[in-house]
Design brief:
The chain is an alpha+beta fold and 254 residues long. Helices cover 40% and strands 21% of the residues.
């Protein structure tokens, strides 16, 4: 069957003599694996379509399993995400998380638009940590683990001091904190952002100013949720963890 769809390249790997196998996240057919013949050759017509983070229109033939690219057109190359190391690291993490965390049936038009917005936000200079944490929340929500942030998980209390339980999936008031002795104690700023992330579409993300302390608390909460419910060994995350302090130091020197 011949397919024509928009897609974003979330994985690309060389295959054989000058070929590449790419995985695209589409807006109509979930995730799709496609063979791009001759992609690594110097004069390849389709080489640019096999580049990571490329948003394009893909026409491919597939009976079952791996498809074969017939034709394609670039809509947005996202070349900036490949040219700058820090942007490449953040974009690679978003792409790998999307690839590994979601089953094909979960990868629909909504997450396609969220990933597209994530890449655009990174290119536009929006805070990369906030952008990535918001995208992580969308992945967690789609996987069925959206945290309860409006009231205490146990008693329903809506005001007071709260802790965050990644294991139980939400907030606990001070009376119920004993239900999870490992519950985190983020400040009001981090809790407010977590609540906002549940409601906010990435396409509506503006410029936000967040303190380093709140970012650290937010990162701990998001990572705890991912590790509790989507325990994945992501190479891009390991690389980002190593490089992010360097990125932050460079940003502070500017």
């Amino acid at each position: 069957m011949l397919y024509r769809t928009e897609g974003i390249v979330i994985r690309s790997m060389p295959y054989g003599e000058g070929n590449a196998i790419i995985t695209i996240l589409t807006n109509t057919h979930g995730k799709a694996g496609i063979m791009v013949r001759g992609a690594k050759k110097l004069k390849s017509r389709h080489g640019s379509l096999a580049q990571p983070f490329t948003h394009g229109e893909f026409v491919f033939f597939r009976k079952s399993g791996l498809g074969t690219l017939n034709h394609g057109e670039i809509i947005e190359s996202h070349h900036k995400l490949r040219e700058r190391l820090e942007l490449s690291a953040y974009a690679a993490y978003a792409a790998e998380l999307c690839d590994r965390a979601l089953q094909d049936e979960e990868a629909g038009a909504f997450i396609f638009e969220q990933l597209r917005a994530c890449f655009s936000a990174l290119e536009e200079g929006k805070d990369p940590q906030i952008t990535l944490h918001l995208f992580e929340m969308k992945i967690i929500q789609l996987a069925g683990y959206a945290p309860q942030m409006d009231c205490c998980l146990h008693c329903g209390r809506e005001d007071g001091t709260f802790s965050f339980s990644a294991r139980l999936g939400g907030i606990l008031c001070h009376r119920c904190r004993s239900m999870d002795t490992f519950a985190l104690k983020p400040g009001d700023g981090a809790l407010k952002l977590l609540r906002m992330f549940k409601q906010l579409d990435l396409r509506r993300l503006g410029s936000v100013q967040v303190s380093a302390e709140t970012k650290a608390e937010l990162r701990t909460c998001m990572r705890s949720m991912l590790d509790a419910h989507l325990p994945l060994n992501l190479k891009s995350r390991d690389f980002l963890d190593q490089m992010e302090p360097l990125f932050q130091n460079e940003a502070g020197d500017e």
